[in-house]
Specification:
- By secondary structure, the protein is an alpha/beta fold.
- 37% of the residues lie in helices and 21% in strands.
- The chain has helices at residues 6-24, 38-54, 76-95, 111-120, 136-146, 191-195, 203-215, 241-249, 269-277, 294-299, 306-319, 338-351, 378-399, and strands at residues 29-34, 57-58, 66-71, 100-105, 126-128, 150-152, 173-177, 179-180, 199-200, 220-224, 256-260, 284-286, 324-331, 355-360, 407-415, 422-426, 432-436, 445-453, 457-462.
- A six-stranded parallel β-sheet has the order 2-1-3-4-5-6, with helices on both faces.
- Helix 3 (76-95) links the parallel strand 3 and strand 4 (100-105).
- The longest helix has 22 residues, at 378-399.
- Bound molecules: S-adenosyl-L-homocysteine, iron/sulfur cluster and FE3-S4 cluster.
- Residues 182, 184-186, 189, 191-192, 226-227, 263 line the site of iron/sulfur cluster.
């Protein structure tokens, strides 16, 4: 890596921002707009941390002086959303030529998209990718000093850089990256191409971060990785995710531990044991199925069969009976027949997920599936999607009410935006509960009696 002094860039950026503050009479504002998954959301906290440290005032509005779009490209509609926002930015920038527009994140790792932005969106000021996120301060400074557009995207990852400031969305919970990238190359998925090879952080570094968060008042952490179950395999001293999870649970002050995402092929018996034994591990497992057809799963390169998946969920349910299982399912993968789709419905009926994210297959340039024959016509896929969604919702609403009448701990997240005097929180299994309460409860765990189920959430009262 070239000589790199982030402190110096930050100091220079702070000076430039301070001059701007004097000229404007107030601090310039910055808004970060996030698309995509929790991994991107965590990256956005780092972007906001840098902006805050540089002296920008945080803003929720795209009218801000600096607007950063942290992009996603997992499905085509994520890309369409960005271009929609850019349309608005174009007209805003005509009125405010000083406005700075920055694009980063997964979509910027695609050379075709960057080329399109270069040609058709000349008003975009800075472009960088996922691998050089930590250069943010430097790139923004370069743009401000030179007045010229800055485009810098690294093709490959270069290790892990840890020391960015981070601005948490809420004081009591935080995501924690435990690994980056993905080596699975599911045949439909672009993530391994835009996030690079799998790298795990050292357990000690993760634990230090969790201890620091706990000292700052965080009580819930979400351990983040594209496939947390393969955590630690690439470390010099290999460790397992189950071991890490146990150690995170032992950190004093941390009350709840969640994690995302689990790949069924790597979910170990050791992890099931830790989930059963450690009370702080939330009673929720997101376990993407993708398809219930073993034939399609093979074409997807998922490396498990329908039977493997069913057996795994049975083992988990036996060990952790009150667990809530949720999933991701893709409809209309190339070559999917009506019979294949019926297999998916069959798994949904048998496992009875509390909820499921359902996606229409979206071909991603450069992935093997995009070049497969027998792409499913949109009409057929749409009709299957509607059937799946109806089933998932019906089962979800039946399952989500199974704790009615019980008293369970709820972590209060916010005041109910629709009902003054009520607050909203989550059960350990991630289901939402609304109940009468004060703002002062936010960020604390209180026992709540679940009076009735409203489909996907409960109405309760303090017990
Ligand atoms: N690493 C996670 C998923 C990350 S992407 C895992 O392996 O489970 C989140 C979800 O997007 C995936 O689970 C999948 O259901 C969906 N997805 C990914 N690529 C897709 C595509 N090309 N078309 C439709 N859905 C897709
Ligand atoms: Fe994509 Fe598969 Fe990696 Fe998940 S495990 S990010 S679906 S390649
Ligand atoms: Fe999207 Fe990148 Fe996440 S493509 S889903 S933001 S890893």
């Amino acid at each position: 890596m070239a000589q790199y002094d982030p402190q110096q860039y930050m100091a220079d950026l702070r000076r430039v921002t301070a001059e701007r503050t004097l000229a404007l009479g107030h601090a310039p504002t910055a808004c970060v707009v996030t698309f995509g998954c929790q991994m991107n959301a965590r990256d956005s906290e780092k972007l906001k941390g840098v902006l805050q440290e540089a002296g920008f005032a945080d803003s929720e509005s795209e009218e801000a002086d600096v607007v950063v779009f942290n992009t996603c490209t997992v499905r085509e509609n994520a890309n369409m959303r960005l271009y929609g926002h850019l349309g608005h930015m174009n007209s805003m920038k005509r009125e405010h030529p000083d406005k700075i527009i920055i694009l980063c994140g997964c979509m910027m790792q695609e050379p075709d998209e960057v080329e399109k932005i270069r040609r058709k969106y000349p008003f975009v000021d800075v472009v960088f990718g996922t691998h050089n996120l930590y250069q943010f301060a430097e790139l923004l400074l370069r743009r401000l000093q030179s007045g010229r557009r800055v485009v810098e995207v690294w093709e490959k990852e270069r290790g892990i850089v840890e020391d960015l400031p981070k601005k948490r969305e809420v004081p009591w919970k935080s995501g924690v990256n435990i690994m980056f990238g993905c080596n699975n190359f599911c045949s439909y998925c672009i993530v391994p191409y835009v996030r690079g090879r799998e790298r795990s952080r050292e357990p000690e570094e993760i634990l230090d971060e969790v201890r620091q968060l706990a000292a700052d008042g965080v009580i819930e952490v979400m351990l983040l990785g594209q496939n947390v179950n393969s955590y630690g395999k690439t470390l010099e001293r290999p460790a397992t995710f189950a071991q890490l999870l146990r150690r995170v649970c032992r950190v004093r002050g941390i009350e709840r531990v969640r994690f995302m995402t689990s790949h069924p092929k790597d979910l170990s018996e050791e992890l099931i044991e830790v989930m059963a034994e450690e009370e702080k591990v939330c009673r929720h497992l997101h376990l993407p199925l993708q398809s219930g057809s073993s034939r399609i799963l093979k074409a997807m390169n998922r490396r498990y069969t329908k039977e493997d998946y069913l057996a795994l969920t049975e083992r988990i349910r036996r060990a952790v009976p009150d667990i809530s299982l949720t999933t991701d399912i893709i409809v209309g993968f190339p070559g999917e027949t009506e019979e294949d789709f019926e297999e998916t419905l069959d798994v949904v009926r048998r496992v009875r997920f509390d909820s499921a994210f359902t996606f229409l297959y979206s071909p991603r340039t450069g992935t093997p599936a995009a070049a497969m024959p027998d792409q499913v016509p949109a009409g057929v896929a749409g009709e299957r999607f509607a059937r799946l969604l109806a089933l998932v919702q019906q089962i979800g609403s039946e399952e989500s009410g199974r704790d009615t009448g019980r008293v369970l701990p709820v972590l209060v997240e916010e005041t109910d935006p629709k009902m003054p005097g009520r607050v909203t929180g989550r059960l350990s299994n991630n289901v939402m509960v609304h109940f009468p309460g004060e703002e002062t409860l936010i960020g604390t765990i209180v026992p709540v009696r679940l009076l009735r189920s409203q489909g996907f959430y409960y109405i309760g009262e303090r017990a």
